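Dear colleagues,

I hope this message finds you well. In preparation for our joint manuscript, I am sending the Metallo-hydrolase/oxidoreductase (Candida tenuis) sequence together with its predicted structure, so that both groups work from identical material. I would be grateful if you could confirm receipt.
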Amino acid sequence: MWRSVFQHKGARISAGLLGFYAGSEVYLYFQTQSLIKARQHVSAAMANPDDIDITKFKSATVAGMFVNPFEEYRPQTGFEFMCVRVLELVESFYGNRIELHEHLPNHQTTEDYLKVHKPDLEIFRKNSQIIHQCATTNNYSQLYKKTRRWFSSARLPPLSNQLLFTWLGQSCSLIQISGINILTDPILSDYLIMPHVGPKRLNKSPMTFEDIQFATNNKLDFIMVSHDHPDHLENDLIAKFGNSSTWIVPVGLRKSLARKGVFNVIEMDWWDSVSLNEYMDGNLKDIYEVVCVPSMHWSGRYIVDANFSLWCSYILRKNGKSILYHAGDTGYSKQLFDIIGKKYGPISFSLLPIGQYCPSWHQKPRHISPEECIQICQQTHSKYMMGVHWGTFKLSSEPILEPKNLLTKLSSQLHKLEYYRTPEFGLTYLFDIEHDVEYKLH
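The corresponding structure tokens are as follows:
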């Protein structure tokens, strides 16, 4: 009897919770649509339609949760989220073996297709040592002299003009601009959730934490985090880097980092601009700033914390010129990228996600395809673009190599293969950011 009573009571509680959740989702949806329509009226009332109007795309909250103020966005429910996560888990078991959708020659695996190179740690380290010496002596003349590598007669651009880039997988890259070291969306572990809990990485990271410390001469200046999804922010790395680096994060993540003892944080809202010079040693002549720009995505590591923090992209500028665009994760909104291009284009070097776009009915509002990536390059007037966020974990239904192959095909058709392409894991690339020219290190 008592078991029957408790079962009946449990069923009523479950039904009540389910009804409350469904009602909350409906409320969020209609409130967001009302916000979007109100902003459209404000934009339509502008005196000059050619003005750059960011009002429409300022961050917004409904009932304490961040929402996407984009007409193109379709929110996902917890039911959809769980259903797709189960499908992804199933795919992760076989993804690195047969998901290439091609017949592999005998004894070959995805590692043969996704070759991992040894990063050029020495060039990162030498530049890091030079800028440290300049800051110590307050003499920055070395930054503006052309250099040679000890094993080559070829001249490299001055350190002040150098952008070094090494892709470590997903949206994680080690980047050095004029000797200043930046790590984007840090994830180095073999497993996405926790040690030995998948999805499993298809290939090991080309760098370890110790490699990054060596390459930066123990001076990783900045860590840019676009949002807190596990494939963009590894929990274990937060304590490892700690307060030795300045963390650049969207609104809402400062509290999360503080709970782990990290307080050296710049927290940014969409369209915020922050000078970085005060966070660096010495008195640099050049002026650096980071701009937080909108993206169409979502946040949260678990269902219960979904959208309590913001998601974003970043543009790093030097002396008023847009050098680096780190997009993180985003869906496609034509008007948004038109505005970003008008305000901050042209951009020298963009990192855009090209994977995790299938099935389209689920992924399209939150991720871009290679075709949309090319459109964004054109809208933001990006000179060089590296397509990332693919080939690292099996997180969606498209074949592992499809993002790379499709981007290569599209770039070739535009005669832009030299400019829009996918990086190779661990390979170090060098660009002259003053003249927007690539130098070959290998």
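For the figure legend, we might mention the following. The domain at 121-439 is CATH 3.60.15.10 (Metallo-beta-lactamase; Chain A). DSSP finds eleven helices and 19 strands in the chain.

With kind regards,
E.M.
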